[in-house]
Structure formats: C-alpha cells, structure tokens
Specification:
Elements lengths: L2 H10 L1 H8 L5 H5 L20 E2 L12 E8 L13 E3 L2 E6 L3 E6 L5 E6 L18 E3 L2 E5 L4 E6 L5 E6 L14 E3 L2 E4 L11 E5 L6 E6 L5 E5 L5 E6 L23 E4 L4 E5 L20 E6 L5 E6 L15 E5 L2 E7 L4 E6 L5 E6 L7 E4 L6 E3 L20 E3 L13 E2 L6 E6 L1 E7 L13 E7 L6 E6 L6 E7 L7 E4 L3 E5 L4 E6 L5 E6 L9 E5 L2 E8 L5 H4 L2 H5 L8 E7 L3
Parallel strand pairs: 1-34
Antiparallel strand pairs: 2-40, 3-4, 4-5, 5-6, 7-8, 8-9, 9-10, 11-12, 12-13, 13-14, 14-15, 15-16, 17-18, 18-19, 19-20, 21-22, 22-23, 23-24, 25-26, 27-30, 28-29, 29-32, 30-31, 32-33, 34-35, 35-36, 36-37, 38-39, 39-40
Length: about 575
C-alpha cells in the first residue's frame, strides 16, 4: 500500500471532512486543542501538555458548589489501577480502563454507548500494573495501545475495529500504556518494558491506516528506519554513535523505554519524548553515559531524526527514569520546556535548541547529586551515593547498600503536572521518599526481569509523602505546597478560573486556589484517584471529570510505603461534575 501518498491525501482531506460531517477530528482542530473549550481532543488538554483550560465558569469563587452530574462504572471484576484521561468529542467521552478496555459514553447522560475489550494473551508483563492512560482522536477514529503491545483503532460511533497493528513482542517484555500522540497529522507512539531489557523507540504511523512511516530507537547504536510507498524499510541513520556511550553488547538490550508517550509543539515543529532507565539497573556493567536513556529527546516529526537530546541522569544507577513529560511554554519571549524529573530536579530547557536554562530541586531531599551544572548541563554527582559494584562485594553477590533519595518511584512519576498561563506556575505532584538500594549480578534473558538491583522504599517524613507544589520555573522557588499523607499518583489540571484540580489516593478530587494553594472544594470518589482531571463546556455548562480507581506502581513496588496505604480500596469509574443550580 502506498503509505506516503495515503497520508498526504488523507490529511489534506481532513478539513473538508470536518466541514462536511461536523464530526471528524482534523489536524487543524488538534493544533488548536488547548483553546477548544467544547471538547477534550488530546491527552494533556492540547499536545503541548500544559493541562490548562481557559474556562472560567467554574472558578475560585463558586467551585464550592460543584456537584456530581453523573458517574459511570467500568464494571466487572477487572479493577486495579485506573490512570486514564478521558477525551471528549461530538457528544461522546472516550475513556480507557485497566486490562486494555475502552468505553464510549454519552457526554450528557453517562450512558454507555459501546465498549471494546481487547483480548489479552497469557504472559503479558507490564511492570507497573495493568493500566492504560488514554486514547487519541483523529478523523472518526479513537486509537489506543494495549498491554500486549498492539495499537487498535476503532470507529468512534460504533466501536468497531478499523485497523489493528502489532507493535512488538509482548513475550520479550514489550507493552503499551501511554496515550498515543497526533503531531501534525502523524500518529506517534512509544513502548513500555524497560525493566525487561527491551529497546525503547518512537514510531510514526499513518493514523488512518496504522502503517509505519518511520521508527527512531532511543538507545544509542540502533538503526532508525523510514518506510517507502510500498512499506519497505530504508535505513535512516543510527541513533548516536555505536559503542560511544555504551560498552560491549549491552546496548542491544538497553531499555530507555518511551512508556509515557510524548508532547508536540507546533511552534517548534518538534515532538518531545522522555526516555526511561537504562537496562540493567546495575550501572557498573555499563560505564558511560548510556545515551539516550533517562533523557528528553526532541524529534523532527517529518523525518524521525533526533534534533536534540538532553540527558537528565547520565549512567543512571537508581532507576531515575526520565520518561516524564516535557511541557512547552512561553517565558521572557522564548519557547521553553519544563520537566519535573524522577531524579528530583526540575529542568527548564530551550524547546528549540535543547540548551539548559535552569535546573533546581522540587523535593526536599536529593542524595545522588548536589546540583546541576548550568554551564555543562551535567549533574554534580555524589559518588558515595552510587550503589556498590557487586563484583567487589562479599562473594561477588551483592554490592554495598546506600540510602538514596528520591526512591526509584521518583520525585514525580507518571502523574502529569500542569502549567497555568494565568499564574506562570507549574503545579507538580511530588513525593518525598527514599530507598535502600544495592546492586546484584544480572544477565539478560528474554522475557525475564532485567534489574540487577534490590531495594526497599520508605517514607522520609512521618506526616506526609505526597505534596502538590506550585513551582516558579524562572526563579526555581516553591511558591506554595499542599501536603498529602499518601503518595500522589494522579495528575493535575489548572484553569483560568484561578483553580488547580488534582486527586489523591485517599479518594478525593480537590480544587485549590491557583495563587495560594488554599483548598476550596473536595469530593470523595470512593476509590483512589491516580488519573488526571479534565474540563470542557457543553452549551452553557462547564463540566469537570476524573477517573477513579486505586492501583498503579505504588501498591506493587512501594515497600514500606505500600504497607502504609494498603487500606485503600480498588475501583473503576469516571465521575463528572458541574455547578449546582441551587
């Protein structure tokens, strides 16, 4: 099939289709998604990922009157973590759920219109619960990834499969949990599985057919490809330089998964993907920086070439996975990106060039580095805080143990932050915890855990673990914070109504004053909130929605922290709110 011609013809026709039918999602609509208040067309409330809404009907003066409009249960025995952000278009809400399910719901009534439940094989290996974070909309399709590393495109009206493509081998540890990204008419996706020695990459596809356009590996030494009109792979240059920053053969199973997906900025024309930890965790096996792990990689959407890359944690030894979102914004007349990294530092980077502008802590305890050198962009490591080489330990079985902070679950993990165009602040869901960590010998085995480390997580403070923090990207100051007993694991949304919305594992969706952090409203959803909220306006009514359902990595990997929150109940539902008329 002639892939490139199909893409050009199909995308050129999108504007006509949207005019003719009034329902097709076009590239032009997605470009302006952040200002489209009647829909939620993409993950992040716009491809830039700011999670900022210009809506003001619900505001800091009246948010206390917010009441439920409807709630929808995902049903069945399949609960676990619910990390999905709904997308909303043409009167329908599309929301994914655990175990690779997706629902279409009537936006006004909460009635189920259809459900698609992907048939998962035995032996899937998601590292961090059976989650899914959302879908993408394009044309009359809704597209999402599955736990067995497939992409599925469904008709928005009927839920029927339009196309389905296998991305990689789930038996080798590959999976998909992120919401796909549409960038300038191209479908961009990443892969999960860094704990199994997979090779991270970004893929570009025709969103209408699922056919590949290009692939770009995020481990140095692997070849990228583009695909001609007949689907034939053509070499498109190696990522980096073979063996320059990776020793021996370890680059072949190097990790650096792109498991959180990416963002796209039409002002720069670049897509930004965070990359995960290098594999294995035992850094003594892989001396060197290990590009492009634990980094932000900026890609040319048309060619699949890396335009720039910034590495947050070279030669990562703590699982300070750099997959966190890169959120672009304007400051002092220039375009920057903000990133709250798992390693505890907040980075402000020129979105066009990749040059570091600022870097500062957003948590209270960081032990692996004292600071980030703003001239070189490199961390000032504290060598004594790297776990010891197991070959030099007792009987060569275990290296010396160190206490490291943050813990490997990160100062911020999958929960997306928000940026407010009104206040100029980022709102970051942070966690204060540390870990005892040690290295162990390890060798790669297909489908096996590929860590080479042991660990125990524990809280740093008695009174809280999570803290929502308002961060000034220019000064590096924490303007305000709101502490939370349990770790924060859900995302954040800001609005022009001077509001910040976020959820807690204790089950609350909360609204705060964006300038002061004062709590103005909360609602108990019945299970932990580990998903980001959204808002939109239908007619003369503004709605706020969030998915509820406790789970994710914390109860699976959290050590002493998991014991502290083991009273929390699982669930699976979406809640929608509006202002009371009384």
């Amino acid at each position: 099939m002639k892939v490139q011609k199909i893409v050009i013809a199909s995308l050129a026709g999108m504007s006509f289709l949207s005019l003719a039918h009034g329902t097709e999602v076009s590239s032009a609509m997605l470009k302006n998604a952040a200002t489209n208040t009647s829909s939620v067309l993409s993950f992040g409330l716009g491809s830039e990922g700011q999670r900022y809404s210009p809506l003001t009907q619900v505001n800091s003066k009246n948010v206390a009157k917010l009441v439920p409009a409807w709630s929808f249960s995902f049903g069945g025995e399949k609960q676990r973590g619910q990390e999905s952000q709904p997308v909303i278009h043409n009167g329908k809400m599309f929301v994914t759920a655990s175990y690779s399910r997706i629902f279409a719901i009537d936006m006004k009534t909460g009635q189920k219109l259809w459900k698609y439940e992907h048939r998962l094989p035995d032996g899937i290996m998601p590292c961090c619960d059976v989650v899914n974070r959302g879908a993408a909309l394009f044309g009359n399709l809704v597209i999402f990834g599955t736990l067995d590393a497939q992409l599925v495109a469904l008709n928005q009206d009927t839920g029927k499969v339009v196309w389905k493509e296998k991305v990689d081998d789930y038996a080798a540890g590959y999976s998909m949990t992120a919401a796909p990204l549409i960038a300038d008419g191209v479908l961009l996706t990443g892969v999960s599985g860094g704990e199994f020695g997979i090779v991270g990459r970004v893929e570009a596809r025709n969103p209408l057919t699922g056919e590949l356009l290009w692939t770009r590996p995020t481990v140095e030494g692997h070849m990228g490809y583009r695909y001609d009109k007949d689907g034939k792979a053509i070499e498109n240059g190696i990522s980096g330089t073979l063996n320059k920053t990776w020793p021996g053969e370890l680059w072949k199973t190097g990790g650096a998964s792109t498991w959180m997906g990416g963002t796209y900025d039409s002002k720069t024309g670049l897509a930004y993907f965070g990359t995960g930890n290098p594999a294995p965790w035992n850094s003594h096996l892989r001396p060197g920086d290990n590009l492009y792990s634990s980094s932000t990689v900026a890609l040319d959407v048309k060619t699949g070439q890396i335009k720039w890359a910034y590495q947050n944690t070279p030669n990562d030894s703590w699982d300070f996975d750099g997959a966190n979102e890169f959120v672009t914004f304007d400051m002092d007349g220039k375009r920057y990106g903000g990133k709250a990294d798992r390693n505890g530092f907040f980075y402000v980077i020129d979105a066009n060039s990749g040059k570091l502008q600022n870097a500062f802590p957003f948590v209270k305890k960081i032990t692996w580095a004292s600071s980030i050198d703003l001239k070189t962009g490199r961390p000032n490591f504290i060598p004594s805080n790297r776990p010891g080489d197991p070959t030099k330990g007792e009987e060569g079985k275990k290296g010396s143990t160190v206490f490291a902070a943050p813990a490997f679950l990160g100062a911020k993990n999958q929960m997306p932050m928000a940026y407010s165009q009104q206040t100029g602040l980022f709102y970051v869901p942070a966690n204060e915890w540390g870990m005892d960590i040690w290295n162990e010998p390890i060798s790669y085995k297909k489908g096996g855990a590929y860590l080479g480390a042991g660990f125990t997580i524990r809280p740093l403070f008695d009174d809280y673990i999570g803290a929502l923090r308002a961060v000034d990207p220019k000064s590096g100051k924490i303007v305000w914070e709101v502490k939370n007993n349990a770790p924060l694991w859900g995302g954040v949304m800001s609005t022009a109504g001077n509001l910040v919305f976020y959820g807690t594992p204790e089950g609350f969706l909360k609204a705060l004053d964006a300038k002061t952090g004062k709590e103005l409203w909360k609602f108990q959803t019945g299970s932990g909130v580990v998903a980001p909220p959204v808002t939109w306006q239908d007619g003369d009514t503004q709605y706020v929605a969030v998915v509820s359902g406790w789970g994710g990595a914390v109860p699976l990997w959290g050590g002493e922290v998991a014991k502290k929150v083991n009273f929390l109940e699982q669930g699976g539902s979406v809640w929608v709110f509006k202002l009371s008329s009384k």
